[in-house]
Amino acid sequence: MSAPTKTESAAGVPATAASRGIATRTQLTLAAVALLALCWGFLPDFTVVTLSYIGLYAIVAAGLVMLTGVGGMTSFGQAAFVGVGAYATAWICTAPASVQALSGIVGMAGMPWVGLVLGLVITFAVAWGLGSVTLKLSGHYLPLCTIAWGLSLYYLFGNMEFLGGQTGITGIPPLVVAGFSLASPRAIGVLIWAVLLVALWLLHNLLDSREGRAIRALKGGRVMAESMGVDTAHYRIKLFVLAALLAAISGWLYAHLQRFVSPTPFNLNIGIEYLFMAVVGGAGHLWGAVLGATLIALLKEKLQDVLPSLLGTSGNFEVIVFGLLMVFVLQRFADGLWPTLNRFSERWLRREAPRAVREAAPLGQRTLPAAGTVLLQARNVTKRFGGLVANNNVSMDVKAGEVHALIGPNGAGKSTFFNMVSGVDDATEGEVRLMDQAMLRRPSRAFARLGMARTFQHVRLLGQRSVVENVALGAHQRAQRGWLASMLRLDRAEEVALLAEARRQIERCGLGAHADTPAASLALGQQRIVEIARALAGQPAILLLDEPAAGLRHLEKKALADLLRQLRAEGLGILVVEHDMEFVMNLADRITVLEFGTVIAEGTPLEVQRNQRVLDAYLGGADDDLPAAATEGARA
Ligand SMILES: Nc1ncnc2c1ncn2[C@@H]1O[C@H](COP(=O)(O)OP(=O)(O)OP(=O)(O)O)[C@@H](O)[C@H]1O
């Protein structure tokens, strides 16, 4: 593990000359919060109420930013969770039986807090239950399911007699904090904004961590995230529950602000409005939730005043305007308004001063097996897609300290084989063993934990994130700090170690100059190298590379070959699929040739080049491109 730099920032960016500007982002945020706090006592009542509602909306929208913008799961049903939080506290604080039984223990002032706990417990159970069923669905099915549960919970509120039916529940007591009654909107508004700011801080910390990178990886697709060792199903459910809990907290605050609840504010329309807020503000940005909530709340208020007089009739016309607004914003500002505002403000902002870091936590280390040990074994692996046999009885070993190439014409079954020996797909027949363990029906993350890392034929990076963040994701399973530790910033020593390791691998792969650039801005060939650096950050024993030389220029290919030779010398086993025959013949120790899913040859580069069947099927006519003495070249 490399020693951390004393002046690395939490984001791992080395200290550089701070850019000129009037303030840093943190200073600006603190100044805005201080201004709001100072003005709070003098603002007109109406403004205070509006700001309180904006705070409530923003808490829900922040959860949606995490769920939809960051995690890639769309939910129209968050209003229902707001309802669960609101009804739980309303019921417990007003039902005669519960008041009698509990108020003796916690006192009347303690009842809303019991309501909060009840709301959170019910929300947790409902969200976990719904999440485990619906989050398995992909594409349009998930949003459709969120509509279904949003409607179900809404009608449940309206039809339960003990919840007051359509009339709702009145007489909800005010919150009491440390003996102070928060009966007035001005008083509870302070709590609402405090909750919002704390939630934003916790979520910001979560995103700026190992766990945050894993959450972002969900958007990069299940296959990529799982191959980094991330349990995607578990993360999706946790994210869903987190967003639901935030909604429930907002509902709890709402109930004690309004002191009355009815089903209407928890219907599907409102669920759609929450989604508008997150998307219009900037679905991938936490402050976008506040911006979106502010815009929609103010706009709604204005439209409700203006539209009826303009149209001469009343109705929910603001929903139509919201729809048009959404189309306009998405057309002009695809990522929402916050990124645009951010870019605009950048010239006045100073870069955050780097934070001094004393020590990095040790990362998990792997002892590599001795050279010659069989790492990966495929025995008689067959894969059928209906009537098509993509792999037919394929057997192959990959040993520590060797480069094994898998070649063959397009459609020969190389990627199918790759998928089966990396846990993406299961073989129809045959056996796959990794580190002498049977791997049938085990997920990619189990392969990753045992020491396998891979790259992809079609590059799978988080394009908007920096190279260093992408590479640090590869080291995910070498650290352990969870969500709570990340939220509370107890993971900093580990985070420094992860980022230092990522930078070390980036340097090693020759991309040091690009460490802080967004991955998408690199050329395709460089992105392939980023994937290799990401794989190396996991400290693998075996590396699977899918067409690593595609898109590289001559010198870049040479540098890549040198790197792979160095890794081989360090004892890694490397399985490479590649169409560039010069690259393969100069690098590989052994080559397996596939045609129509069947192994037609296996041996050293020289043996393969002399094999008539291989010449006929694949290498025929390509002799001019091959190195004169491939075997000699292989160890060069
Ligand atoms: N999910 C799938 N369903 C049906 N057929 C598939 C599936 N995946 C691959 N195939 C078929 O299996 C065969 C082998 O495909 P595969 O992608 O493994 O070949 P390849 O050697 O990797 O090709 P290339 O070099 O072009 O990447 C092809 O005929 C392909 O159409």
What can you see in these coordinates?
A hairpin with a 2-residue loop joins strand 10 (429-434) and strand 11 (437-438). This protein has 25 helices and 16 strands. Helices cover 54% and strands 12% of the residues. Residues 1-18 and 627-636 have low confidence and may be disordered. The longest helix has 27 residues, at 232-258. With 636 residues, it is an alpha/beta fold. It folds into three domains: 44-350, ABC transporter involved in vitamin B12 uptake, BtuC, CATH 1.10.3470; 374-451 and 540-634, Rossmann fold; 464-537, no CATH class. It has a six-stranded mixed beta sheet, with helices on both faces. The protein has a four-stranded antiparallel beta sheet with strand order 8-7-10-11, covered by helices on one side. Bound molecules: adenosine-5'-triphosphate. The site of adenosine-5'-triphosphate (ATP) has 11 residues, from strand 8 and helix 15.
Are there runs of 5+ residues with pLDDT below 50, and where? 1-18, 627-636
Q: Summarize the biggest pleated sheet.
A: 6 strands, mixed
Give the class-level CATH name of the largest domain: Mainly Alpha
What fraction strand? 5-15%
GO cellular component, one term: plasma membrane
GO molecular function: ATP binding; ATP hydrolysis activity; branched-chain amino acid transmembrane transporter activity
Protein name: Branched-chain amino acid transport system permease protein
InterPro entries: AAA+_ATPase, ABC_AA/LPS_Transport, ABC_transp_permease, ABC_transporter-like_ATP-bd, BCA_ABC_TP_C, LivM-like, P-loop_NTPase
